[in-house]
Amino acid sequence: MNAAVAEPVSVDLLRRFDVPGPRYTSYPTADRFVEAFEVEDYTQALKQRRTGAAAMALPLSLYIHIPFCESLCYYCACNKIITRHHERAASYLRYLSREVDLHTAQLGLGQVVSQLHLGGGSPTFMADAELRELMAMLRRNFTLTSGGEYSIEIDPRTVDASRLDTLAELGFNRLSLGVQDFDPAVQKAVHRIQPYEQVSTLIQSARQRKFSSVNVDLIYGLPRQSPESFSRTLAQVLELRPDRIALYAYAHLPERFKPQRRLNPVELPSAGAKVAMFSTSMTAFIGAGYVYVGMDHFALPSDSLAVAKRQGRLHRNFQGYSTQPDCDLIGLGVSAIGRIGATYSQNAKTLEEYCDFLDQGRFAVVRGLGLSRDDLVRRAVIMALMCQGQVLFESIELGYLIVFRSYFASEMEALKELADQGLVTLDEYGIHVTATGWFFVRAVAMVFDRYLQTDRTRARFSKII
Q1: Quick check: is 55 in a domain?
Q2: 463 near 251, Cβ under 8 Å?
Q3: Which pTM does this prediction carry?
Q4: 37 and 16 co-located in one domain
Q5: Is the Cβ–Cβ distance between 397 and 404 less than 8 Å?
Q6: DSSP label at residue 269
Q7: Rounded CA gap, 354 and 331, in Å?
Q8: 57, 190: one domain
Q9: Do 38 and 100 fall into the same domain?
Q10: Per residue in 352-382, pLDDT tens?
Q11: Distance from first CA to last CA of the chain, Å, rounded?
């Protein structure tokens, strides 16, 4: 399956699939987690990893959630705490250390880590000394491999060349910059003033310091955006030529995310304008030589994500697409999500509750899920579609001892409609996502989502386009 399309995707097709759907950073998706999954279940999963020879051989991935931000971005749907009291970070570090101690008590010291991601919130809310303390604590407890992927989300408004020196010194090799839009009117509407020149200077500084990859996040569908204004932002982004670009559709869900209530819904672009922005973005990035990795991600051909896509080594976890092998993930911090073996777990979403658990000497896990056999089979199919763009019947049949066409009889029937629309091809060997279908791979994956089949309420998800 090719990563690019031979000809532009039709606007009619884009409009047809302008529907809500999961992003499938996991299957089942996080909205299916239950409170019946408790601390004891998580502890048991960690014990099973320690005693299982196969699991112990697999490297770990670490995600650390730093919830603090100095100012509120009105579009934000992340779990964050708005504060200018930077001393709160020092207290938070102590709780992170306690949480790490609980993990090493179960897993032992020195577990190999090949992937680390600091997200938020704004991890760069922390002072350089606090980031040093955090990384020193992690290195005392885990073994960070020399060829690992160590990334951090940075707010360009809080980072300069000196801070980049610190990040490089600490071993971070990938940066993700939140940009969203360069248009001044849009920035004012969403309460995030961030001039182009500021971002440009920062990316130039990052290149001078030899960071392996710089990612830029963009959002289309924000207030006061138009296809014309967003085209200007696209042109500026292409001038910067980041290694990776993440292009997200804004989901306006003010009933779920309180900050979005500050946005004026009258200023939101129409569905047609959003489709036009996505179509223009797709044409611009591919025309500039970027590879469409999948979902919302584009990468330069030389970037490791694009290389992994070409070589069939693409994986997917709660942070999105990854070059790292499918591995267990420990989530640290308030609201962090993890995956150990055939379980998913999530920490308490409020700082007070998170700290209270750790004060009691307990993991902060408040919900999660133990995957059933059916979940595991469907996860394998969905991740194969999302990462490799195809499912080979034989590999699933041998791995899970099923007859694919019988087990998924209704799904195979449903796929015929997508085949008629040119999104997939079906043959005796498997299901293959077409070059056009790759832009709608979420819709293909949704066919195999048993939970969606029984629950058609999808308003909680972002739009596919």
Answers
A1: yes
A2: yes
A3: 0.90
A4: no
A5: yes
A6: P
A7: 13
A8: yes
A9: yes
A10: 999 999 999 999 999 999 999 999 999 999 9
A11: 21
